[in-house]
Protein 1
Amino acid sequence: MDNSATEIQHSWWLRRRLMIGVLVVLAVFFFLLDIALGSVSIPLGEVTRILFGQESEQVAWLYIVQKIRLPKAITAVLVGCGLSVSGLQMQTLFRNPLAGPSELGITAGAGLGVAAVMLGSGSSASLYAIRQLGVSGSWLLVVMASLGSALVLLLVLLIAGRLRDNVVLLIVGVMVGTITLSVVSIWQYFSQPEQLQEYLMWTFGSLGGVIGYHLSVLSGVVLVGLVLAFSSSKALNVLLLGENYARSMGLTVGRTRLLILASTSLLTGSITAFCGPIGFVGIAVPHITRSLLNTSDHRVLIPTTCLVGTILMLVCDSIAQLPGTQAVLPINIVTSMLGAPVVIWIIVSRNNLRSSFS
Amino acid sequence: MTTKETTFRQGGRQVYFRHPLPLFRFFFGTWLVGLSGLLLSCSSASTLTEQSETAATSKDYFAEKTAVRYAKGFRIKYFNNYKLVEIMNPFEQKADTIRYVLVQRGTPHPDGYAKSQIIEIPLRSLVAMSSMHVGLVGFLEAEDILVGLGNLKYVSSSKVIQRIEAKKVVEVGKDQTIDEERLITMHPDLLMAVGSPVSRMDRYRTLTDAGVPVLINSEWVETTPLGRAEWVKLMAALLNQEKAVNQKFGALEKEYNRLVKLTRNIARKPTIISGMNSKDAWFVPDGDSYMTRFFLDAGATYPWSGTKTTGSLPLNFEAVYPIALTADCWLNVGITNINSKQDILAKDARYADFKAFKTGQVYGYSKRVNARGSNDFWESGAVNPQLVLADMIKILHPDLLPKHELVYYKQIL
């Protein structure tokens, strides 16, 4: 008996290693694919040559790959990792399979922060004026968006702490989201047309337009958030077993919560600030990862979630580019279209959930 | 700035509520066509009764008449004591025209127009919803009839601003939230509204039921600058100012056509790009846009002049970028007020790669933005296409108009 059990464990271990290997290859492949596809068709050979730092026969191609597609693909990777990991942390923290940044109103909270910068403080604080401030500009946006998401997350935590019930938590999330949206609507109502335009374009979600300095800011903040998430992976494992149990294991639950709160707010906040609200990645990816690996060990889950999230975002971005056409779909629409069926699948196959959220 | 899209022009600037998806727009369009079919089948019976036009009086009150030559969006027919104005709904078939009966004040209303709105002319009071409408009033120097505006902030005309300061003009609310109670109390002779697929007549049902005529002005569907400006003839018909409008518009038309001739046989036609990227979409005027007509009339090569869509083209940055890298001139920069190259770079550092940016050939139409934040380009610019065209020619071919000073455009330095 013992033998067979270890064998099964061993075979799972092998499968996992293989799976992660395949995922890494896929992530690299889709990264290159995302750069290769676009409205302007550039031969694959040229794309790789440009990526390896060689000159191209056409200046326009060089510019397109270096200044448009590469930053966009990097942004997709950051968004995929950040949103997926923050979704995973939330699902564990609330021990609720339906938790995720956009479902609990965290994204709406970040949107509130962004709206405060873009619309809330009159004409002087339109995004364009903010950007003129340079450094403080993009930082201000990140700080406000992170604060907004932290505020909502705290609120949800407080309420969820009293009522441990999946449905209640979701209702709270939806309600909080509605409240923040209505505040934003009031601001919209009293805003200048061009600020509205800016904000409306932001709400569609976009991976383009994050370049240079903004990209460094986003990368930096997402990295900090991910490091925090990795460092709390053991604590997350213990939390899954229930808080009382966690306390008996000697875990300071309050501090762990704060750590997770900081990590998720930074990740969701910064990504929402720069790329707009992107739905469903946060809730769908952790479930896909769990079903792939059949484990709830966060030391494995977190890096794999990053991989799966990266692949998903790169695929979504490739689709959003509508290769061969000159138009582009808002990224939010594509992620929702791919993510919503996953959520339905989660709800339908509840057996799969019980194992992870005992 | 394109013509066929849902624009809410609030004073000096426009807010675009565009569907980012052509696909979505397509469905929306088919839905509208379907709806119009329904409406058509319901209303065809009633229009039959209106065919029997009766002359209410035998005296001809309108000695001077005006004829529409460029505009596709409206028609005027003259009868003894009334004029019949038909405004085409741009989103539907020709059959869907809204008719207005403009009756000389104090004469009997003609029979047979039970379904049409009656407007008594000449107007004594008008509420306008867009800065373009203010431009129409200004063109005919009839600012005194303005008693209400959708938004008091976006006004460029000094005469209207004086009236606002003297509390003679009130704010009646934005497009979506019109203060109906106030309007009914004011009871103006006419409310001129902006036509768009979302602002169909039903929205003004309350007002029309209360006896305030509402005229839907869809000037922005016109595909030529002259067609757009020609809507002053509609305003003139409402004011019995046909004589003045025939003179003034005639002069404008002559000047515009003179300018077009200047560039017609020119050999070098610089390539231009228009507008700006916002996040994932760069909306460029398409082949049917009046803006594109301006570009071509000014002697420019415009890469998207051959495209036919039902609105502006949302292109991704990548599609515009290769063209923008080598284009000679960059016009209509920014929806927001962009006043320096620094502002442009703050939006996106990649603009620095454009040839036009490097050579300084970057222009926006924000020269006449006043302290209120209103841009006259949308007000008097709409009815002075010859000035806009002269500006563009001056920018693209300075040697053709050595004496011309830029009116609406300015170089972004």
Protein 2
Amino acid sequence: MFRMTIAAALLATAAPALAETHVVTPGDGAQERLQEALIIAQPGDEIVLEAGRYAMSDGLSLDVEGVTLRGAGMDGTVLDFTGQQGAGEGLLVTSDNVTLRDFALENPKGDGVKSKGADNIVYHRIRVTWTRGPHPENGAYGIYPVESTGILVDGVKVTGASDAGIYVGQSDRITVRNSIAEANVAGIEIENSRNALVAHNIATRNTGGILVFDLPSLPVMGGGNVIIENNLVVANDTPNFAPPGNIVAGVRRGTGIMVMANEKVLIENNILSGNPTAPVMVIAYVQPYDDARYNPLPREVVVGPNSYDGGGYDPQLDGAEMLLAAFGGELPPVLWDGLGSLAAVEGTAGWSLNLTEAGKGLGAAQPGPLSVKAPAAAFDRSGIGAPAALEARLGG
Amino acid sequence: MKPATALLAAASLALAGSVAARAAFFQPVAAVGAVNDDAVVEGMPRLLSQFGFFTDGAGQAPAARVTPYRLNTPLYSDGAEKLRFVYLPEGKRMEANGDGLIDFPVGTALIKTFAFGEGSKRRLIETRVLLHRESGWVALPYVWNAEQSDAALAIAGARMPVVTPAGEAISYRVPNKNQCKECHGLDDAVIPIGPKARNLSGEWLAANLGEVPAGADRLAVWEKRSAVGADAVARAYLDVNCAHCHRPGATASNSGLDLRWEQDDPHALGVMKRPVAAGRGAGGLLFDVVPGEPDQSILLHRMLSNDPGVAMPELGKSSIDREGTEAVRRWIEEMPR
């Protein structure tokens, strides 16, 4: 790691293992004072952001291991990036074992908090809000850990992201829970990642609630081993406001939980209500690609028991009128394109496009009722979720 | 006060954002004409003069063993004039590493001063130093005072108004110490970016390394780029201005875009590549580079923006590089469809 080696050495000699607290207050020079604290902190130190509104002119960054950045609550300490003039995100974290908790970011120009190559990170009670609500010029991601192992996102709230509120990319050992994603294009998105647990969240008023994607041509490939359970996925009915060109710009308004090109995904014990295109959608990747490592199909996806209410009544799909007529006014809750492999517990109502080839469009679709087998065995949960050690940082 | 304590005190003073000179904490300035090797290998001197890199700071007159160099194709920094120097300690030498980054011994300092204005109106804005220590490279930013007599450590960076050579009034950003790593970071270490043999003149290499390695001096000399094909000019520009982040192991690795000179896979270079996490940066466009269609190419769109969250590069740019964007436009225009 790159840090102030000499200062670290001196401190180690003088006062070994004595964690310090750096207190930062709002007011003049907050940008420089906070950034200085983020630089001079030593591993194990805590930076305390006192309550108040902090006017930020530039992005912040943290590159010291083991630091805790703590505010006075997600409504008490607000980092206001409305006047941000530079950098691609509000806060960038590039060191391991960092804890971020109890503060808010408002109106960052790009992403909210990005952590890259930052293993064992905890996001606890962080709020990222674009205050004008859904808008294509809002930043892309609210909470954005990428290329990391060990991620615990707990009790965060993201509103207004023009891509995904909570986005975990190219990572491993992930838990996203007890969080609220509201009025984003995608509420929660797990992309090209493995061993992710998404549980006890509320995803509402997004275009799509919870997405699990695997995309080609990324450094980290092969998403899978994902559990989506005990989430409230309600009224995801905001028209898609993503700038065209982004992968989520193709997400249909009213998508509850969507799985695209992944393996071993379990969806169970969720409450899905008021998702007018499809409460659950399981599909193959639809674009052309050139990547020998890539499998565009959803494989071994399991739909367990969920509670469905008011789904598929206003689908944003080609031929919606005919489909609605054919299915009696409302599409059944689970939509599968027929590609890859899907299992569902007995009694799961659904429909299939019965496609036979990926990436060929809907021309060959022969919609019909879903007919798949029940899961053959219990879902293997081993190794899924953030390492238990991250829990210990949530106290206080 | 023990030297170590004094050093910490000096460092914390600088960290506290104090700009006022506090003579009591100064370390003795090195004798004129000699670089203070101790300052290169440890500590964080509060003032640039403590290194002794210049016999005349305002005039940027280098001390002994401090050698100026230029890059064939430079990194655009709002049109700033950039004065580059390398300091090598007594008895040490640098060595070529193919056409890539020169191998510099521990004790080396790379020094880069950013200036705006010409002749008597030239103002030095900041000097960034990269110090090669036993523990690796350390990057520190120094901001020049109004009198131009010295520059002070500005670990949290700074903003200041400047007028670019194009006549544009901008808020110029001095990066903070962490932001240094955003461009200089590779596989979790800090490394120099600029001094690659392929981007240095054969003459300079021969004089300072005693050899001109194969592939050296290959990137276009920017002022003479009209004599070179659009492809070579643009690829040199992208290598120098973008590839320190857009390559495996660096800040933008997760984008999958690799703009290094040595990359020859069109898809990795962005041709018909869809963006991954560009968000609104994509500007409604579908692909990074669409051959023959510069205005349909996200890469050029982002270079032409000044809006944080859209603008590329993310750091060190407050104004658009007209020459660079023109070079990239030509490259895309002439690309076979």
